[in-house]
Amino acid sequence: MAKVQFYLTIKDGLEDLLGYIDDDLTEEMKTRMITCLNAAESFVQGSVGPDDGNFYQKNGVKNLYTVACNSYAATLFTYASTISVRRVNNVDDVCRSIIGQLRGKYDAKDDEVNNDGTEHQSDISNGVN
């Protein structure tokens, strides 16, 4: 399994999305936000594909990645759940939609033509090039 790279901080939109300002945040809340954001980045990267060192930071990808991660992190933060017999919260529609867009961009990246004219494709299911 590929190692997850964490790119975002809670200052990249999560605080604003949740409606918090610095004066309102306790250390406990900041820690919980960071944990939710890390979980969201792991989820999004796991759903799209392993990072090749710069995919999630490319123009046209970074904004989608940030919105998807913040959306899912906000869901995790707002609807924190424990093990129970109640209904489990599903991934929100915004995150799911953006993951679909990111998968398309990821697939397009893997179908690019190499400099020598040969087609480069990778097996996304296991992350092997």
Describe the structure.
The protein is an all-alpha fold. The chain has one domain. Helices cover 48% and strands 0% of the residues. It contains 4 helices and no strands. α2 packs across α3. It is elongated.
Write the layout of secondary structure elements.
Layout: H1 14-18, H2 27-48, H3 62-78, H4 93-110
Helix pairs in contact: 2-3, 3-4
Structure summarized in a few sentences:
Residues 109-129 are annotated as: Disordered. The protein has 129 residues and is mostly helical. The chain has four helices and no strands.
In helices, the fraction of residues equals 40-55%
Question: How many strand segments?
Answer: 0
Proportion in β-strands: under 5%
Query: What does the main sheet amount to?
Result: none
InterPro entries: Phage_HK97_gp6-like
Protein name: Head-tail connector protein
Organism: Lactobacillus crispatus
What would the keywords be for this entry?
129 residues, disordered C terminus
